[in-house]
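[Automated response] Your request has been received and processed.

Submitted sequence:
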Amino acid sequence: MKHLIDINDLSTQEIDEMIAVAGDIIEHPEKYCEKCKNKKLATLFYEPSTRTRLSFEAAMYELGGNVLGFSEATSSSVAKGESVSDTVRTVGAYADIIAMRHPKEGAPVAAIRRATVPLINAGDGGHNHPTQTLTDLLTISREKGRLDNMTVGLCGDLKFGRTVHSLINAMSRYEGIKFVLIAPDELRIPDYVREEVLEKNGIEYVETTDLEGSMPQLDILYMTRVQRERFFNEEDYMRLKDSYILTPDKLENAKEDLSILHPLPRVNEISVAVDDDPRAAYFRQVEYGKYIRMALILKLLEVK
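Generated structure:
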C-alpha cells in the first residue's frame, strides 16, 4: 500500500507523472468526473486549515467521490483520548483513502503503522507538507514551463516553514537549481536541511537577510508568513513578524518573468498592492492545489 508522508516518498518520475496528469485534468476535466465514483476520502484535520482541507474535498468531489471526516480535533474521539493510530484504523473501515493534518511532527508516521488504506500527510507541525510541495511544483511547472535551471528565493520563516523544507527537498533533485535563502538570523533554515539536503547533494545556495538585493537574480520568489503558532513566546513573534513585507517598489528590479508564490494564508508579508501584478502567482497556486491533489488521489487509489 502506498502512502505519502514525505515528498521523498515520491521519485522525480512519479512527481513528473502526476504533474502531467494534473495538466490533463486542467485541459480535459470531463474525463475525470467519475474516476472515483463510490470512493470515499476521509479528512482528519487536527489543526485549522482552509486551503488544504477544502482543496482535498473539492478534488474528491470533482473526481465523483464522497468526503467524510472532521475539521478540528475537539469534534472527534480525540477529545476522549483516542490515539491517532486507533483513529486512523477506525476510519479505514469507512473510507478508501485518508488525508490527515496534525500539529505534532511525526504523527503521520505513527498513523501509517495501523492504517488499512492509503494515508496522505496534509501537514505535520513544522516538519512536512508534501501536498503543498506538489502544488508548488505544479505551479512552477505551469508558470515557467520547467522545474530545472532556475534560481529560487525563499523568504521569511525558513526555520519553522514546513512548506520551505519540503520544497527544498523536492527541487534539489532537479538540475541547475540554486537557492537564495532570505531570513532573519533567528529564522534561518534548520541545520538538518542545510547539511543533509543542500550540502550533502552539492546544491548551490546563499543565505542572506537582504530581500531587495537578492531580487534581480530570482526566477521564483517564495514568500512565507512568520507563523505565530510555532513560537514559544509572543515577544519573539512580535519582533520578527514584519521582517519582510513585499511591496510593488521592492519588485522594481525583479525580472519581468519572475513568479511570486506563497503557500497562504498571508498576514501582511505581501502587500495587497502586489496582487494585480501579473507576476503574482499565489492565487493561481491555490487552484493548482486542487488539480495536483486530484492526480495524487488517483495515483494512491491506483485508478487509471
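Summary generated for your ticket: The radius of gyration is 19 Å. Residues 126 and 182 are 18 Å apart (CA to CA).
If you did not submit this request, please reply to this message.
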